[in-house]
Write a structure and sequence with these properties.
single chain; 346 residues; alpha/beta; six-stranded parallel beta sheet; 10 helices; 27% strand; globular
Length: 346
């Protein structure tokens, strides 16, 4: 490697190992990349960790020749723009999730297509903003694009949304978006701290996801849920969801399964099941890829107006392999509330 080229710090891996192994995530020095086409070169100020980081890093029989960088939540400042950029300029403060088929954002500088980047909310610092992009895109697309919920409150009067796993990263922003859209929100949780967190974000009711859903809904005076958004173990909850969904209702999930689902359970109700994967638009460079830019900008507007708030619950400094291994370990428990953020490479 030519040492005269500008370098940057990063955290990545060559081997896919258990997080307890020191080489599962390591500190690196790499060449600073250059933007082309519609790419922005962003100076990374803060990052957040999601379950997808853990899934990508999970042990497997594969060794990378070049280091693999994880991280799909970034807040930072635009340093350079590619020759075809039209939306941003150097100095702009931004936040985004990035693309699953490119290097992640756990590095001092990061390349990202401007069409999936939003302007950072001015009322949030970089750490608070870094908690939001991936989960917000997931919640927004799932709610409005997949479940086809109307953004207008009047259209949703009397309609209910059941969120399975309401206190996690996606659930924490989904509760807020759903309440802003006028839905009655029922979240599932099993611990007092997660229940209180979900209620604090606006959930109208909390039920226990270890107990049958429908009797608990009925006890609240809710015959069945008009919409269900599954954020935890689709297979485990499938039969309960099929029973709890209203006729002609819609179910969305973000959690892949090990076995096929019995879709026949939905037939008599003419119910819809749909997946949400927030990387779809960037992975396939769909014609509506810029929708993620637009929804992040609208989210920033709602945050700056006081309608939504950050979901950050914990912050670590600095950004390095040791701290990232700690956060991966926490995410692997499946018991984290809200979002954990890391800030500063210094």
């Amino acid at each position: 490697m030519n040492s005269s080229k500008p370098m940057m710090r990063a955290v990545g891996l060559y081997k896919y190992l258990e997080i307890s192994e020191p080489e599962s995530l390591i500190d690196l020095e790499m060449e600073k990349p250059l933007p082309a086409a519609r790419d922005l070169l962003v100076k990374v100020k803060a990052i957040s960790v999601n379950p997808v980081d853990v899934k990508v890093r999970a042990p497997k029989d594969k060794v990378e020749e070049a280091p693999k960088i994880l991280g799909w939540d970034v807040a930072g400042v635009v340093e350079q723009v590619g020759p075809e950029c039209m939306l941003f300029k150097p100095g702009d403060e931004v936040y985004y999730a990035g693309s699953i088929n490119r290097q992640g954002g756990n590095s001092e500088y990061h390349l990202v297509d401007e069409r999936i980047v939003g302007t950072k909310p001015v009322t949030l610092d970089f750490a608070q903003a870094a908690a939001l992009p991936l989960t917000t895109i997931t919640a927004w697309e799932g709610l409005f694009d997949r479940l086809c919920v109307s953004p207008g409150k009047e259209a949703n009067a009397g309609q209910s949304l059941l969120i399975i796993g309401a206190a996690g990263g996606v659930g924490s922003i989904l509760i807020q978006l759903a309440k802003n859209a006028g839905l009655t929100v029922i979240g599932t949780a099993s611990r007092s701290e997660s229940s209180e967190w979900a209620k604090g974000l606006g959930a109208d009711h909390i039920i226990n996801h270890y107990e049958p859903f429908l009797p608990q809904l009925n006890a609240l005076g809710i015959p069945q849920a008009d919409y269900i958004f599954c954020l935890n173990s689709t297979e485990q909850h499938w039969e309960q969801m099929a029973e709890a969904i209203a006729p002609q209702g819609k179910i969305c999930s973000i959690v892949e399964t090990d076995h096929s689902l019995d879709l026949d359970l939905l037939k008599n109700k003419s119910a819809t099941f749909v997946w949400e994967f927030m990387f779809t638009r960037s992975l396939y460079e769909t014609p509506d890829m810029i929708n993620q830019h637009e929804l992040l900008n609208e989210t920033a507007r709602l945050i700056d107006a006081g309608t939504l708030r950050t979901t950050m619950t914990e912050k670590l400094e600095p950004i390095n392999a040791s701290n990232l291994r700690k956060v991966h370990t926490m995410i692997e428990t499946g018991r984290t509330i809200g979002k954990i953020v890391l800030e500063h490479f210094e």
